[in-house]
Sequence to fold (405 residues):
Amino acid sequence: MVGPSRHSLPQWMSAASRVDFDGAANVSRSDASASPSSPPHRRSSSSDSDMGFGERALSAAGAAFLSAILVNPLDVAKTRLQAQAAGVPYYPSQPQYGRQMASLCANTILSDIRCSPSCAHGGIFGTEAARPPDRFQYKGTLDVFYKVVRQEGFARLWRGTNAGLALAVPTVGIYLPCYDMFRNWIEEFTTCNAPNLTPYAPLVAGSLARSLACITCSPIELARTRMQAYKEFQNGVKPPGMWKTLLGVLSPHRSTSNHQNLQSYRILWTGVGAQLARDVPFSAICWSTLEPIRRRLLALVGEEGHAVSVLGANFSAGFVAGSLAAAATCPLDVAKTRRQIEKDPARALKMTTRQTLAEIWRDGGLKGLFTGVGPRVGRAGPSVGIVVSFYEVVKYVLHRRHMDL
Fold:
């Protein structure tokens, strides 16, 4: 790995990017050479003081908007693969399916007779379970793309995009600005009181910010997962949107009592425990990996950095960090999906993340725990890279504008 540059890091960089992760609370070489006998301290980034919460949230929301549109097909593929492993059928109900297969299979005379073993369709009719043919089974990411486009239309790859946008904009709009502020507060405190803990500021700040964002936006995440997991079999029928999906979640719990209705709203936070169990480690791994990588890349650029180099360094660091974090937390993502697509309300409220993981292990073993890891990693790497690079470029541009004024 490239060592720290002898030049000081750019002034526009965020505070955490200026922390030396090679040693506990070491300052940059320029700071150390300026005052070798003084206690270590962090030079504040002028961009942090120039940007308010509104500007941070706006730039983060813009990044989230772009990312949510670009990577939505991978999100659909990941959710479909995980839902299929959980038992969600992607073929018509048995009576309809049996009638369709009976018309195709010349070897079948009565609906309660098995197809011939040589029959390519392999259906079993009557009271016995029908084994769907390969065209109703997803075998991988590309297979999901192909079958969704062929059976449902190209637009279905962007199923749940409205919920994804409704989720991404407030989530990232909360997440990145809060991460910046939490990290700066933690660094200021640890630099003065516990210098050895300063390198862990991104990990703690990322975990706190992600927890706040997850709890706030969990109902929208529930709607998006359900929208992407289920398939509409009736031709010409528009699948339910985000609000209709949420109302469908609430409808079995409605009663005449306002108190009971208030209690029933907690069903909208189904799976929030699994989501936190997934996103908090994801954020901790992501930021503790991303910060040192982008710090070293940006140290090579120094004060001569421009928007393109800022974009490249942050996208590269975000891509690597997001991919690693997504792969490591895939089992928790599988558990989150299974919790949120559970149709039995009583079971959905009683199931814990630990029980869900045990159930997944029992049903599918290690392969079951990493169902959908390909599209998840393929989604998270570019998504984190896009969000972080867009966010930092906007900070860079705003900082330059403040300097010119």
Q: What stands out?
A: DSSP finds 15 helices and no strands in the chain.
